[in-house]
Amino acid sequence: MKQQQWWLWLIGLMLLVSTGWAGQEDTMSRARQQMVKEIEQDVTVTSGSIGRGHLSREIMRIMGEVPRHEFVPGNKQDVAYVNAPLPIGYGQTISQPYIVALMTDLLAVSKEARVLEVGAGSGYQAAVLSHLVKEVHSIEIIPQLAKECRQRLARLGYTNITVHEGDGYYGLEQEAPFDAIIVTAAASTIPPPLIAQLKKGGRLVIPVGTPFAVQHLMLVEKDDIGQITMRQVLPVQFVPLTGTRE
Ligand code: SAM
């Protein structure tokens, strides 16, 4: 092949690849916007229980931007934007987008907040949170998931999330206290170390109940004098919090 023909062939191939890539990004972006609409519908249907008719606009904008397809296994990318939990391996799941948006909204975080997540899983919930706050610390008990999550978040350019490997029942004493804590696995009771590591004025959102049965999403608030109030928000179904105390 002559030198000039070779270059033309290469440019053609590059154009083909980049057009294909742009096409895939468009498809994902459309699917993501559809997912956002379905979250809005779920919010309307459950407004009586969750005590709000809309979630924060900022959170809905972020849900429309975070590439969920990057957080699911390769063979699930085509269904990455269904409004449902999906398997991520090791018997674990990435949570339903509506629940991710709702839990994030319930935390009512500020830009300066430092947040603890128990149950890093794929890193998707941490990624959503990281757009709203200063710092996210996320603990994962399954070492392989923690490693994959850390690598994924680094590849996607998330710099304000630290993934820790360990049992999140005990929280993260060395980084405490936190403005907000989110637990993304169901506990049989609220772990006392998490309440202790919550700042005054802070919020903890956690599913509580029996594994694989009805659980309730709970909003726990610590007021300015350290008193705790709790409210049941919604029946949910999460994988169980595991570890030595559960
Ligand atoms: N937040 C995750 C996401 O966005 O993909 C989904 C979390 S998945 C529903 C629950 C996760 O909690 C699993 O990855 C599981 O391994 C983890 N987990 C369960 N018990 C734990 C514990 N005691 N400490 C830390 N992580 C735990």
Automatic annotation (TrEMBL):
Q: What is its main location?
A: cytoplasm
Protein EC: 2.1.1.77
Subcellular locations according to the entry: Cytoplasm
Annotated active site: 95
Task: Quote a single Gene Ontology cellular component term.
Answer: cytoplasm
GO BP, sorted A to Z: methylation; protein repair
Q: Gene3D superfamilies, per this entry?
A: Vaccinia Virus protein VP39 (3.40.50.150)
* Record keywords: Cytoplasm, Methyltransferase, S-adenosyl-L-methionine, Transferase
- Enzyme kind, highest EC tier: transferase
Q: Which CDD domains match?
A: AdoMet_MTases
For this UniProt entry, the molecular function terms from Gene Ontology, in alphabetical order, are:
protein-L-isoaspartate (D-aspartate) O-methyltransferase activity
Recorded catalytic reaction(s): these are: [protein]-L-isoaspartate + S-adenosyl-L-methionine = [protein]-L-isoaspartate alpha-methyl ester + S-adenosyl-L-homocysteine
Which InterPro entries does the entry link to? Answer: PCMT, SAM-dependent_MTases_sf
Described purpose of this protein according to its UniProt entry: Catalyzes the methyl esterification of L-isoaspartyl residues in peptides and proteins that result from spontaneous decomposition of normal L-aspartyl and L-asparaginyl residues. It plays a role in the repair and/or degradation of damaged proteins.
Protein family according to the UniProt entry = Belongs to the methyltransferase superfamily. L-isoaspartyl/D-aspartyl protein methyltransferase family.
Stored NCBIfam families: pimt, PRK00312.1
Question: Could you tell me what this protein is called?
Answer: Protein-L-isoaspartate O-methyltransferase
Q: Which organism is it from?
A: Desulfobulbus oligotrophicus
